[in-house]
Design a protein that fits this description.
It is a single chain. The chain is α/β, with parallel strands linked by helices. It folds into 2 domains: 161 residues, Rossmann fold, CATH 3.40.50; 118 residues, N-(1-d-carboxylethyl)-l-norvaline Dehydrogenase, domain 2 (Orthogonal Bundle). It has 12 helices and 9 strands. The strands form 2 sheets. The protein has a 6-stranded parallel sheet, sandwiched between helices. The chain has a 3-stranded mixed sheet with strand order 7-8-9. α8 crosses α11 and α11 runs antiparallel to α12. The radius of gyration is 20 Å and the shape is globular. The model has no long low-confidence stretch (mean pLDDT 96).
Length: 294
């Protein structure tokens, strides 16, 4: 079997567009679709074919990669694509969709006779563009050789979390990882807001923790986006982070765990959305510390 495939990418936002470009650069034939055609059109410069409909995009595909907003959007788009999906086609689902949504997508995959892989990714715009995402994947052992070239093109490493019937293991791990990312991002926003309120130079805080166990590259990178007013274009948008935070809270509730920090983070992100920061980097949750536009 050749490792050069026809790959359909459904959803070409921040992450999906970068993944499509890396697939094209890897020598794969890429057929792309996005609800907003204008967002997908630039991929033609990388050699991708941009389709008008999901069904047109998946025509002749060996692998379909979906990178849509959530589980409901993914289910809807794949149903639209169904008339042109061939039995046996591999479906790689890479959005953060939530545990229950993954179960529904797996059911649809069985109905359409597709080989389903849940493969959410860890990373933001920069690692996505560099093909350096961490892929968390689950799905049948038989058939992995077909999706491996796709996962290798978009990520630096793939961690397999489960096989047949264990698709949601990848999404479960993604929610755990995202809970840390979201909590950390909101905490650093509050640190900067408090420093401003108390008249403390943020650099003095960074100097105090430099080189110690409290220091971290992520803290400095995200803080820099706020302090240098580089929140657009987003590495990972506030609105998407808010959706993920809600999925984390719901997962905790349904499994008997109260996640107070995650719930507070969701409220902060939603408040930042309401303030007009939906499309900015998730670090813009910083603005939720202020009652009025800052």
């Amino acid at each position: 079997m050749t490792d050069k495939l026809t790959v359909s990418v459904l959803g070409t936002g921040i992450m999906g567009a970068a993944m499509a470009r890396n697939l094209a650069r890897g020598g794969h034939t890429v057929r792309a679709w996005n609800r907003n055609y204008a967002k997908a059109e630039p991929l033609t410069a990388d050699g991708a074919f941009v389709a008008d409909t999901p069904a047109e995009a998946v025509r002749g595909a060996d692998v379909v990669l979906t990178m849509l907003h959530d589980g409901a959007a993914t289910l809807d788009v794949m149903r639209q694509a169904a008339p042109e999906l061939r039995p046996g086609t591999a479906w790689v689902q890479s959005a953060t969709a939530g545990i229950e949504a993954i179960a529904g997508l797996a059911v649809l995959a069985r109905q359409l006779e597709l080989v389903f892989y849940d493969a959410p990714v860890l990373g933001t715009r920069q690692p996505a563009e560099a093909g350096q995402l961490l892929v968390l994947a689950a799905g049948p052992v038989d058939g992995r050789e077909r999706v491996t070239p796709v996962l290798d093109a978009v990520g630096a490493r793939t961690v397999w979390t489960g096989a047949d019937g264990a698709e949601a293991t990848a999404t479960r791990l993604k929610l755990v990882a995202n809970s840390w990312v979201i909590a950390t991002t909101n905490a650093l926003g509050e640190v900067l807001a408090l420093a401003q309120a108390l008249g403390v130079d943020p650099q003095s805080f960074f100097d105090a923790i430099a080189g110690g166990p409290l220091d971290m590259g992520y803290l400095r990178a995200k803080s820099g986006l706020i302090l240098d007013d580089r929140l657009s274009p987003a590495q990972f948008a506030v609105a998407t982070a808010a959706k993920d935070a809600r999925l984390i809270v719901e997962a905790g509730e349904k499994n008997g765990v109260r996640l107070d920090v995650a719930a507070a983070s969701a409220h902060r992100l939603e408040r930042a959305v309401a303030q007009g920061h939906a499309d900015k980097d998730m670090a813009a949750a910083y603005f939720a510390s202020f009652d009025e536009q800052h």
